[in-house]
Amino acid sequence: MDVTNGPPVDAQEPSTSNKRPAEPDPAPPRKRRNLVSPFTATQQLDVDNAVKALEPNADITFCVVTHASQDCTVLEYAHVLAADTPHEVFDKLEWLWNMPYSTLDVNTIENVHPLDAAIRGYFDHTDSDDKPDGWFWLPHPDDLGIIKEIYKFYVGVDITAPAPGQYPNVRRKPEEFYENQKSFKYRFTPFPAMKNSWAVRRFAVPTSGLTPETPAVQHYYPFDTLPPISLHIPYHFVICDTGRKLQSVYGDDYKDNKGVLQDHPELDAPELLMITAVRGIYDAWMHAEPVLDDDASPDAVQGLPNTVGSGDGGSHVTSDGTIMDATT
Fold it and tell me: I want to staple 290 with a disulfide (CB 3.0 to 4.6 A). Which of 93, 95, 148, 185 is the partner?
Protein backbone atom coordinates (compact mmCIF):
# COMPACT_ATOMS: atom_id res chain seq x y z
CA MET A 1 0.00 0.00 0.00
CA ASP A 2 1.34 3.43 -0.95
CA VAL A 3 1.71 5.91 1.91
CA THR A 4 1.81 9.69 1.41
CA ASN A 5 2.83 12.47 3.76
CA GLY A 6 -0.44 14.37 3.58
CA PRO A 7 -3.59 14.90 1.51
CA PRO A 8 -3.26 14.54 -2.26
CA VAL A 9 -2.14 17.68 -4.03
CA ASP A 10 -4.05 18.78 -7.13
CA ALA A 11 -1.87 18.87 -10.20
CA GLN A 12 -2.80 22.52 -10.84
CA GLU A 13 -2.05 23.75 -7.30
CA PRO A 14 1.03 25.96 -7.32
CA SER A 15 3.93 24.78 -5.21
CA THR A 16 4.90 26.74 -2.12
CA SER A 17 8.25 27.11 -0.48
CA ASN A 18 7.07 25.69 2.85
CA LYS A 19 5.91 22.34 1.45
CA ARG A 20 8.02 19.39 2.59
CA PRO A 21 9.25 17.22 -0.29
CA ALA A 22 8.01 13.64 -0.32
CA GLU A 23 10.25 11.15 1.46
CA PRO A 24 12.06 8.76 -0.90
CA ASP A 25 11.00 5.15 -0.82
CA PRO A 26 13.04 3.22 1.73
CA ALA A 27 15.70 0.92 0.37
CA PRO A 28 14.52 -2.68 0.25
CA PRO A 29 16.00 -4.90 2.96
CA ARG A 30 18.84 -7.13 1.94
CA LYS A 31 17.63 -10.56 0.97
CA ARG A 32 19.05 -13.54 2.79
CA ARG A 33 19.32 -16.72 0.82
CA ASN A 34 17.66 -19.82 2.21
CA LEU A 35 20.28 -21.43 4.43
CA VAL A 36 18.25 -24.56 5.15
CA SER A 37 19.06 -26.46 2.00
CA PRO A 38 18.78 -30.26 1.86
CA PHE A 39 21.55 -32.18 3.57
CA THR A 40 23.22 -33.95 0.67
CA ALA A 41 24.87 -37.35 0.42
CA THR A 42 28.21 -35.63 -0.18
CA GLN A 43 27.85 -33.57 2.99
CA GLN A 44 26.89 -36.70 4.91
CA LEU A 45 30.04 -38.44 3.67
CA ASP A 46 32.14 -35.45 4.70
CA VAL A 47 30.64 -35.54 8.21
CA ASP A 48 31.24 -39.30 8.43
CA ASN A 49 34.89 -38.82 7.52
CA ALA A 50 35.30 -36.01 10.07
CA VAL A 51 33.82 -38.20 12.82
CA LYS A 52 35.90 -41.26 11.90
CA ALA A 53 39.07 -39.18 11.80
CA LEU A 54 38.83 -38.70 15.59
CA GLU A 55 38.43 -42.41 16.36
CA PRO A 56 41.49 -44.62 15.80
CA ASN A 57 40.91 -47.41 13.28
CA ALA A 58 37.24 -46.50 12.75
CA ASP A 59 36.01 -47.50 9.30
CA ILE A 60 32.24 -47.24 9.86
CA THR A 61 29.75 -44.46 10.58
CA PHE A 62 28.65 -44.40 14.20
CA CYS A 63 26.76 -42.43 16.84
CA VAL A 64 29.21 -40.12 18.57
CA VAL A 65 27.64 -40.88 21.97
CA THR A 66 27.08 -44.67 21.88
CA HIS A 67 29.59 -45.85 19.23
CA ALA A 68 26.76 -47.88 17.64
CA SER A 69 26.97 -48.01 13.86
CA GLN A 70 24.17 -47.70 11.33
CA ASP A 71 24.11 -51.51 11.22
CA CYS A 72 23.11 -51.60 14.91
CA THR A 73 20.71 -48.70 15.18
CA VAL A 74 19.02 -45.88 13.29
CA LEU A 75 21.38 -42.95 12.86
CA GLU A 76 20.25 -39.38 12.25
CA TYR A 77 22.37 -36.37 11.35
CA ALA A 78 21.71 -33.65 13.91
CA HIS A 79 22.46 -29.95 13.52
CA VAL A 80 24.00 -28.30 16.57
CA LEU A 81 23.10 -24.74 15.55
CA ALA A 82 19.46 -25.46 14.75
CA ALA A 83 18.26 -25.35 11.15
CA ASP A 84 15.27 -23.20 12.19
CA THR A 85 17.43 -20.52 13.82
CA PRO A 86 15.86 -17.09 13.05
CA HIS A 87 17.51 -15.09 10.29
CA GLU A 88 18.11 -12.24 12.74
CA VAL A 89 20.35 -14.56 14.74
CA PHE A 90 22.25 -15.56 11.59
CA ASP A 91 22.86 -11.84 10.96
CA LYS A 92 24.36 -11.44 14.40
CA LEU A 93 26.52 -14.56 14.24
CA GLU A 94 27.90 -13.80 10.78
CA TRP A 95 28.86 -10.31 11.90
CA LEU A 96 30.30 -11.46 15.23
CA TRP A 97 32.28 -14.25 13.56
CA ASN A 98 33.60 -11.90 10.84
CA MET A 99 31.85 -13.77 8.03
CA PRO A 100 30.40 -12.30 4.83
CA TYR A 101 26.67 -11.72 4.96
CA SER A 102 24.49 -14.74 4.13
CA THR A 103 27.31 -17.30 4.15
CA LEU A 104 26.64 -19.18 7.42
CA ASP A 105 25.24 -22.55 6.36
CA VAL A 106 23.84 -24.88 9.03
CA ASN A 107 24.83 -27.83 6.85
CA THR A 108 28.53 -27.09 7.22
CA ILE A 109 30.51 -30.14 8.36
CA GLU A 110 31.38 -28.35 11.60
CA ASN A 111 27.71 -28.15 12.63
CA VAL A 112 26.45 -31.71 12.01
CA HIS A 113 27.06 -35.01 13.77
CA PRO A 114 25.49 -38.49 13.67
CA LEU A 115 23.38 -39.56 16.66
CA ASP A 116 21.32 -42.58 17.55
CA ALA A 117 17.72 -41.61 16.68
CA ALA A 118 16.54 -41.87 20.30
CA ILE A 119 19.43 -39.76 21.61
CA ARG A 120 18.91 -37.24 18.83
CA GLY A 121 15.23 -37.02 19.85
CA TYR A 122 16.26 -35.98 23.35
CA PHE A 123 18.80 -33.49 21.96
CA ASP A 124 15.99 -31.49 20.37
CA HIS A 125 13.27 -32.30 22.93
CA THR A 126 11.18 -29.60 24.63
CA ASP A 127 8.45 -29.64 27.26
CA SER A 128 4.87 -28.38 26.99
CA ASP A 129 6.13 -24.80 27.47
CA ASP A 130 8.62 -25.25 24.59
CA LYS A 131 11.58 -25.22 26.98
CA PRO A 132 14.46 -27.65 26.34
CA ASP A 133 14.32 -30.70 28.60
CA GLY A 134 16.63 -33.18 26.87
CA TRP A 135 20.39 -32.76 26.96
CA PHE A 136 23.19 -30.51 25.75
CA TRP A 137 26.92 -30.56 25.05
CA LEU A 138 29.04 -28.87 27.71
CA PRO A 139 32.62 -27.98 26.69
CA HIS A 140 35.06 -29.98 28.79
CA PRO A 141 36.96 -28.08 31.53
CA ASP A 142 40.25 -29.11 29.91
CA ASP A 143 39.62 -26.27 27.47
CA LEU A 144 38.26 -23.79 30.02
CA GLY A 145 41.17 -21.48 29.15
CA ILE A 146 39.94 -21.19 25.55
CA ILE A 147 36.36 -20.54 26.65
CA LYS A 148 37.55 -17.90 29.13
CA GLU A 149 39.39 -16.15 26.28
CA ILE A 150 36.25 -16.18 24.12
CA TYR A 151 34.24 -14.87 27.09
CA LYS A 152 36.65 -12.02 27.81
CA PHE A 153 36.69 -10.93 24.17
CA TYR A 154 32.92 -10.86 23.59
CA VAL A 155 31.71 -10.03 27.12
CA GLY A 156 34.47 -7.51 27.75
CA VAL A 157 35.48 -8.59 31.26
CA ASP A 158 37.14 -11.54 32.95
CA ILE A 159 34.88 -14.45 33.89
CA THR A 160 35.45 -13.73 37.60
CA ALA A 161 34.26 -10.10 37.29
CA PRO A 162 30.62 -9.02 37.67
CA ALA A 163 28.54 -8.95 34.49
CA PRO A 164 29.20 -5.70 32.60
CA GLY A 165 26.61 -3.01 32.05
CA GLN A 166 27.23 -3.20 28.32
CA TYR A 167 29.01 -5.49 25.88
CA PRO A 168 31.79 -4.27 23.57
CA ASN A 169 29.99 -5.43 20.39
CA VAL A 170 33.15 -6.69 18.68
CA ARG A 171 33.85 -9.29 16.03
CA ARG A 172 36.49 -11.94 15.45
CA LYS A 173 36.86 -15.20 13.56
CA PRO A 174 36.25 -18.03 16.10
CA GLU A 175 39.00 -20.11 14.52
CA GLU A 176 41.52 -17.62 15.89
CA PHE A 177 40.72 -18.82 19.41
CA TYR A 178 41.41 -22.46 18.51
CA GLU A 179 44.57 -22.05 16.41
CA ASN A 180 44.82 -25.40 14.59
CA GLN A 181 42.69 -27.44 16.98
CA LYS A 182 40.63 -30.11 15.19
CA SER A 183 39.18 -32.04 18.14
CA PHE A 184 36.91 -30.58 20.83
CA LYS A 185 35.96 -32.38 24.04
CA TYR A 186 32.46 -32.28 25.55
CA ARG A 187 30.41 -33.68 28.35
CA PHE A 188 26.97 -35.17 27.64
CA THR A 189 24.80 -33.18 30.10
CA PRO A 190 21.09 -33.94 30.68
CA PHE A 191 18.28 -31.82 32.03
CA PRO A 192 16.37 -33.38 34.98
CA ALA A 193 13.51 -34.53 32.72
CA MET A 194 15.80 -37.32 31.50
CA LYS A 195 15.97 -38.83 34.99
CA ASN A 196 13.61 -41.66 34.01
CA SER A 197 14.99 -42.18 30.53
CA TRP A 198 16.67 -45.31 29.25
CA ALA A 199 20.31 -45.90 30.07
CA VAL A 200 22.87 -44.96 27.45
CA ARG A 201 24.78 -48.03 26.33
CA ARG A 202 28.20 -47.10 24.97
CA PHE A 203 30.41 -49.59 23.19
CA ALA A 204 34.13 -49.59 23.80
CA VAL A 205 34.82 -48.97 20.11
CA PRO A 206 32.65 -48.17 17.08
CA THR A 207 30.64 -51.35 16.57
CA SER A 208 28.86 -52.80 13.54
CA GLY A 209 27.93 -56.25 14.81
CA LEU A 210 26.53 -57.19 18.22
CA THR A 211 27.09 -60.43 20.13
CA PRO A 212 26.65 -61.26 23.83
CA GLU A 213 30.40 -60.71 24.15
CA THR A 214 30.45 -57.22 22.60
CA PRO A 215 31.96 -54.98 25.31
CA ALA A 216 29.64 -52.18 26.36
CA VAL A 217 28.88 -50.14 29.47
CA GLN A 218 25.46 -48.95 30.64
CA HIS A 219 25.40 -45.33 31.78
CA TYR A 220 22.50 -43.99 33.84
CA TYR A 221 21.23 -40.50 34.60
CA PRO A 222 22.95 -38.08 35.13
CA PHE A 223 25.35 -39.91 32.76
CA ASP A 224 28.40 -38.56 34.55
CA THR A 225 30.11 -41.92 34.04
CA LEU A 226 30.22 -41.33 30.29
CA PRO A 227 33.76 -40.45 29.23
CA PRO A 228 34.53 -37.07 27.64
CA ILE A 229 33.41 -37.20 24.01
CA SER A 230 35.63 -35.76 21.29
CA LEU A 231 33.86 -34.13 18.36
CA HIS A 232 34.83 -32.25 15.24
CA ILE A 233 32.23 -29.60 16.23
CA PRO A 234 34.03 -26.40 17.34
CA TYR A 235 32.95 -24.60 20.48
CA HIS A 236 31.23 -21.62 18.85
CA PHE A 237 28.51 -23.82 17.34
CA VAL A 238 27.96 -25.60 20.66
CA ILE A 239 27.83 -22.28 22.54
CA CYS A 240 24.96 -21.23 20.27
CA ASP A 241 22.92 -24.35 21.07
CA THR A 242 23.84 -24.84 24.73
CA GLY A 243 23.61 -21.12 25.49
CA ARG A 244 20.13 -20.94 23.94
CA LYS A 245 18.94 -23.95 25.95
CA LEU A 246 20.38 -22.68 29.23
CA GLN A 247 18.97 -19.19 28.73
CA SER A 248 15.54 -20.59 27.97
CA VAL A 249 15.54 -22.74 31.11
CA TYR A 250 17.47 -20.60 33.61
CA GLY A 251 16.89 -17.04 32.39
CA ASP A 252 19.01 -14.11 31.24
CA ASP A 253 21.05 -13.61 34.44
CA TYR A 254 23.93 -15.90 33.58
CA LYS A 255 25.75 -15.14 36.84
CA ASP A 256 22.84 -16.66 38.78
CA ASN A 257 23.47 -20.39 38.90
CA LYS A 258 20.97 -21.34 41.62
CA GLY A 259 18.74 -23.17 39.16
CA VAL A 260 21.73 -24.84 37.55
CA LEU A 261 23.02 -26.04 40.93
CA GLN A 262 19.61 -27.43 41.81
CA ASP A 263 19.24 -29.33 38.53
CA HIS A 264 22.87 -30.41 38.13
CA PRO A 265 24.39 -31.33 41.52
CA GLU A 266 26.76 -33.67 39.68
CA LEU A 267 28.69 -30.77 38.12
CA ASP A 268 31.97 -29.75 39.75
CA ALA A 269 33.31 -26.21 40.13
CA PRO A 270 35.12 -26.00 36.75
CA GLU A 271 32.00 -27.34 34.98
CA LEU A 272 29.80 -24.76 36.72
CA LEU A 273 32.23 -22.05 35.66
CA MET A 274 31.97 -23.41 32.13
CA ILE A 275 28.17 -23.12 32.36
CA THR A 276 28.52 -19.46 33.37
CA ALA A 277 30.96 -18.75 30.55
CA VAL A 278 28.78 -20.35 27.88
CA ARG A 279 25.69 -18.47 29.11
CA GLY A 280 27.60 -15.17 29.17
CA ILE A 281 29.07 -15.55 25.68
CA TYR A 282 25.67 -16.46 24.26
CA ASP A 283 24.04 -13.46 25.95
CA ALA A 284 26.70 -11.13 24.53
CA TRP A 285 26.16 -12.61 21.06
CA MET A 286 22.40 -12.17 21.24
CA HIS A 287 22.82 -8.52 22.24
CA ALA A 288 25.13 -7.79 19.29
CA GLU A 289 24.13 -5.01 16.92
CA PRO A 290 25.73 -5.78 13.55
CA VAL A 291 27.04 -2.93 11.47
CA LEU A 292 25.82 -4.09 8.07
CA ASP A 293 27.79 -1.65 5.94
CA ASP A 294 28.95 -3.48 2.83
CA ASP A 295 31.52 -0.77 2.13
CA ALA A 296 33.15 -0.94 5.55
CA SER A 297 36.34 -2.88 6.08
CA PRO A 298 35.56 -5.94 8.24
CA ASP A 299 38.76 -5.34 10.20
CA ALA A 300 37.84 -1.71 10.87
CA VAL A 301 34.21 -2.20 11.91
CA GLN A 302 33.94 -2.76 15.65
CA GLY A 303 30.38 -1.65 16.29
CA LEU A 304 29.03 0.36 19.21
CA PRO A 305 28.75 -0.62 22.87
CA ASN A 306 25.41 -2.31 23.46
CA THR A 307 23.38 -1.98 26.65
CA VAL A 308 22.74 -5.30 28.32
CA GLY A 309 19.14 -6.23 29.03
CA SER A 310 15.81 -5.33 27.49
CA GLY A 311 15.76 -1.64 28.37
CA ASP A 312 15.94 1.31 25.98
CA GLY A 313 18.52 0.78 23.27
CA GLY A 314 19.02 -2.90 24.02
CA SER A 315 17.44 -6.11 22.86
CA HIS A 316 16.46 -9.43 24.39
CA VAL A 317 15.85 -12.97 23.29
CA THR A 318 12.51 -14.65 23.87
CA SER A 319 12.22 -18.31 24.83
CA ASP A 320 11.83 -19.33 21.20
CA GLY A 321 15.08 -17.65 20.21
CA THR A 322 13.46 -14.62 18.52
CA ILE A 323 15.35 -11.33 18.92
CA MET A 324 13.11 -8.47 20.01
CA ASP A 325 14.28 -4.88 19.78
CA ALA A 326 13.59 -2.66 22.75
CA THR A 327 11.21 -0.61 20.59
CA THR A 328 9.13 -3.66 19.63
Answer: 95
Q: How far is the C-alpha of 11 from the C-alpha of 321, rounded, in Å?
A: 50
Instruction: Quote the DSSP letter at residue 110.
Output: G
pTM: 0.80
φ/ψ of 62, rounded to 5, equals -150, 160
Whether 117 and 74 have beta carbons less than 8 Å apart is answered as: yes
Q: What's the CA gap between 282 and 252, in Å, rounded?
A: 10
- Mean pLDDT (the chain) is 83
In terms of C-beta distances under 8 Å and separation of at least 24 residues, what long-range contacts does 38-45 make, across chains too? 39/77, 39/107, 39/112, 40/107, 43/107, 43/109, 43/112, 44/77
pLDDT, tens digit, 9 for 90 and up, residues 169-208 = 999 999 999 988 999 999 999 999 999 999 999 999 998 8
Cis amide linkage into residue 222, ω under 30° from 0: yes
